[in-house]
Structures are given as C-alpha cells and as structure tokens.
C-alpha cells in the first residue's frame, strides 16, 4: 500500500524476509567469526605443545609424616607438635592452619627466635612455605605447632591432626605423644 502526502512518501512492503544474503555480507560474517576461532586454535596448539613437552608442571603433592607431640611436664599443659611435610610436586604450597579434635584450645603456628642477647622467644607465623621438590621439617628449635595437651595423654598415645594447605587442601595425620627428651622425637 502506498500513501502519498504533500510532505512525504511512505512505502510499506509485505516481504517476510527483508534481509538478503549478499556475497559481501557473507564474507564479512565469515571473517568476523574466523579471527576468534584462529586465536583459540593457536592458543590450544601452544598449550598442547607445552603439555606434551612436559613443561606444564605438576601441582603440589603434599605428604605429612613423622608426627609427634611432646608430653607436657610440670604444671603446664602447653606443649608443641612437630611434623615433616614433603612436597614432591612442581609447585610451592603453604601450610596455613592446623586443627585437632583431640586438643583443648587453639593451635597456633610459631617459630622460635633468639634476640641479640641470646634470649629465646616464640614468634607466631601466619603460614609456612613448603618448597617444590622439598620439605619442611618442624622442630623444637624452629617451626612448630603450639597447643594445649589433652588431660589424659600418655606416652605412645595417637593424637589426630589436620594440616591445611593453601593449594593442596587438608591432610589428616596422627602424631604420637613422646617425651621431650626422647631421641626418637627428633626427625
């Protein structure tokens, strides 16, 4: 239907498909889609080559062994726990928290330090690094876990602990209650 007025002419069409594919439109559409497909193909090829060459790396693989906790002596129940943490992966990980259902109170990571005058003190730490292809060995003279002993602990009792790592997640292990002077208490 066509309607003519003095100021304008309006034409209305009844064609159900007003868009017609032309050679130029098809070429432009294909070129627009080709750029991201080519970029993804190049990235996928590079990643495949990187992985096939063995360069992709291995995530941190954490193993916790040699768990021991000192039996407190005297009037205090405060004591320390020690573990050997081994990382056989290609990535560093960090010990960020330690928990135990068999312990009363809060557990904290700490490192023993000495002042210039030779006095010893304990400094709390937020986390401890476990290097790639390396280990972290806790000891009474370095990094340890300070805790409050259970009221009925005896030598040889197992105490469950869960060590939480930033990348590897939680690892549950048992530590054995030992005497502070026991030679086997050393890693």
From TrEMBL:
Region ranges (Disordered): 1-22
Keywords for this protein: Membrane, Transmembrane, Transmembrane helix
Spans through the membrane: 30-53
Organism superkingdom: Bacteria
Name of a matching Pfam family: PCuAC
Signal peptide: none
Composition bias type Low complexity, residue spans: 1-13
Protein's recorded name: Copper(I)-binding protein
Source organism (scientific name): Streptomyces umbrinus
């Amino acid at each position: 239907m066509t309607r003519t007025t003095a100021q304008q002419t309006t034409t209305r069409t009844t064609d159900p498909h007003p868009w017609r594919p032309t050679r130029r439109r098809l070429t432009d559409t294909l070129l627009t889609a080709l750029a991201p497909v080519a970029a993804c193909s190049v990235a996928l090829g590079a990643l495949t080559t990187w992985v096939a060459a063995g360069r992709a790396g291995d995530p941190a693989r954490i193993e916790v062994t040699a768990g021991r906790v000192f039996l407190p002596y005297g009037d205090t129940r405060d004591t320390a726990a020690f573990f050997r943490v081994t990382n056989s992966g290609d990535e560093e990980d960090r010990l960020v928290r330690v928990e135990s259902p068999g312990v009363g109170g809060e557990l904290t990571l700490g490192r023993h330090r000495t002042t210039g005058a030779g006095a010893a003190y304990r400094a709390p730490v937020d986390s401890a690094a476990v290097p790639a292809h390396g280990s972290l060995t806790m000891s009474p003279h370095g990094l340890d876990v300070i805790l409050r002993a259970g009221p009925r602990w005896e030598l040889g009792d197992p105490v469950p602990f869960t060590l939480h790592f930033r990348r590897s997640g939680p690892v549950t292990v048992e530590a054995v209650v030992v005497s502070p002077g026991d030679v086997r208490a050393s890693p």
